[in-house]
Amino acid sequence: MSSVRSSLQKQQSLPVRPIIPLVARISDQNASGAPPMTVREKSRLDKFKQLLASPNTDLEELRKHSWSGIPREVRPITWRLLSGYLPANKERRELVLKRKREEYFGFIEQYYHSRTDEHYKDTYRQIHIDIPRTNPLIPLFQQPAVQEVFERILFIWAIRHPASGYVQGINDLVTPFFVLVGKLHQRTPFHVAALPLETQRNIEADSFWCMSKLLDGIQDNYTFAQPGIQNKVKALEELVSRIDEDVHNHFKKYEVEYLQFAFRWMNNLLMRELPLRCTIRLWDTYQAEAEGFSHFHLYVCAAFLIEWRKEILSMVDFQGLLMLLQNLPTIHWGNEEVGLLLAEAYRLKYMFADAPSHYKR
Amino acid sequence: METIWLYQFRLIVIGDSTVGKSCLIRRFTEGRFAQVSDPTVGVDFFSRLVEIEPGKRIKLQIWDTAGQERFRSITRAYYRNSVGGLLLFDITNRRSFQNVHNWLEEAQSHVQPHSIVFLLVGHKCDLEAQRQVTQQEAEKLAGAYGMRYVETSARDAINVEKAFVDLTRDIFELVRSGDIKIQDGWEGVKSGFVPNTVHSSEEVTKGGRQCFC
């Protein structure tokens, strides 16, 4: 393990907030012009295609294969299946899609005009001012048509979930679905408004439903006082105290509190810490895990923190630690780094999930 | 360069969503204007040294808070350990000015038994044509609460330095006069460290070797 870890150790660069890279880089090593698929990649893709073509997709089997990454070509459909949006039964899919898309646009018709109502105008206002600030460095998200889609998705979700409403961070969570479901990473450069209207509508409705499914599992992250996040940050602290006493004691010594850096890790599911292409790879696994976003994410955060143990231990004051933890240099991360992170998270989960107290020191 | 400082002050920056808190802090700590910046989630940390008199340096540790209501349960934990604060509103957004009172109440109810020296900041003063709050009424409000008032622009770098330095000077005077006391278990003000000892991360990252002797 240690040799793997040392080869992974990133050179410390100047503290620069990780910038979400351009959409063109999302597909990374899979993009056209990239090296051709290896034999192994080809056989993985064939396995996915076979599962997806079956009259009843075996979701367990699909999860098993998805855990270590979904081939780009089949990601959009696989995500929609794993999120529970599409049924396993192939024959029913078209019908379900049609019905769900109609349902979503029914919501729009029914509710969207209420954004100017006294009761909802604050919600809409917050969404409206946040959208231009979502993925500000990716040109795609500066297109008016895209911003309108995000506004509608977020507003409808917010008013249908009054216990949480719209909370900053949720806007980020639409992004991977929108990019993936719309296969937008394969269509650059282009304007969403130039797509056929029906395609635009399908992308919007599918993104809404996939995001809804994700948020169903983590809604307590965003309800009053954000108990889901508070609990997970506590659990992270507890876990790190068991797996890496040095790091834990280092934080104690310099009075760094986990909430000071890990709040954002939970609230935005590490999206602010990682390039978008890494989030997409991460979500392959989260959707393959039974409680990926709500539970496994905790172990990923622990593994992510320990990944930087050398840099952390070299910082000898509060300020240095906080600046490091807020600006972890992941800009060059790709599938390999995420793969190792996930493997380590899996190991931690296996060792420590509901571990009896004898694991405690 | 030595980074020896007399005191360390912790400041908190508060105000409505999108009044420009993060941009103001980034202009002050990084010297540049970010055209785009994603909404602050929870709390972010920044730091800079300022010289209030020749040879007298103060280290500022600045908490940048999220403006959205839902994050209050997180951000309010940061009031207690702050000695100073910048309360921002956007001069082109009347509503953010009307909320100044609420922000002060919010702060005061969570800072007991300490208190925070606040500076009222009318931000985005480069957007004069869109102004919705006059300087006079802002000064009047600030006066009513015993605050100073300054108008700033992160975009055009107007008064950004002045806002932070004036606040730092005011706090420094209160510390010097004994009105603000250093206390164990309170992070608002810390005394500087003894020269010849390296504590600071700036020293380490700038190639200085850590010395535990």
Automatic annotation (TrEMBL), chain A:
Keywords: GTPase activation, Phosphoprotein. It comes from the Eukaryota. May act as a GTPase-activating protein for Rab family protein(s). GO terms for molecular function: 14-3-3 protein binding; GTPase activator activity. PANTHER family: TBC1 DOMAIN FAMILY MEMBER 22B, TBC1 DOMAIN FAMILY MEMBER GTPASE-ACTIVATING PROTEIN. Signal peptide: none annotated. Residues 69-290 form the Rab-GAP TBC domain. It holds the Pfam family RabGAP-TBC. Gene3D superfamilies: putative rabgap domain of human tbc1 domain family member 14 like domains, Ypt/Rab-GAP domain of gyp1p, domain 1, Ypt/Rab-GAP domain of gyp1p, domain 3. The keyword Acyltransferase does not apply. InterPro entries: Rab-GAP-TBC_dom (IPR000195), Rab-GAP_TBC_sf (IPR035969). The keyword Phosphoprotein applies. The gene is tbc1d22b. This is TBC1 domain family, member 22B. It comes from Sphaeramia orbicularis (orbiculate cardinalfish). SUPFAM superfamilies: Ypt/Rab-GAP domain of gyp1p.
From TrEMBL, chain B:
One of its GO terms (cellular component) is cytoplasmic vesicle membrane. The keyword Cell membrane applies. GO terms for molecular function: GTP binding; GTPase activity. It comes from the Eukaryota. GO terms for biological process: autophagy; Rab protein signal transduction. Keywords: Autophagy, Cell membrane, Cytoplasmic vesicle, GTP-binding, Lipoprotein, Membrane, Methylation, Nucleotide-binding, Prenylation. Pfam families: Ras (PF00071). It is a lipid-anchor. CDD domains: Rab39. It is found in: Autolysosome membrane; Cell membrane; Cytoplasmic vesicle membrane. Its main location: membrane. Belongs to the small GTPase superfamily. Rab family. NCBIfam families: small_GTP (TIGR00231). This is Ras-related protein Rab-39B-like. It comes from Sphaeramia orbicularis. The gene is LOC115432756.
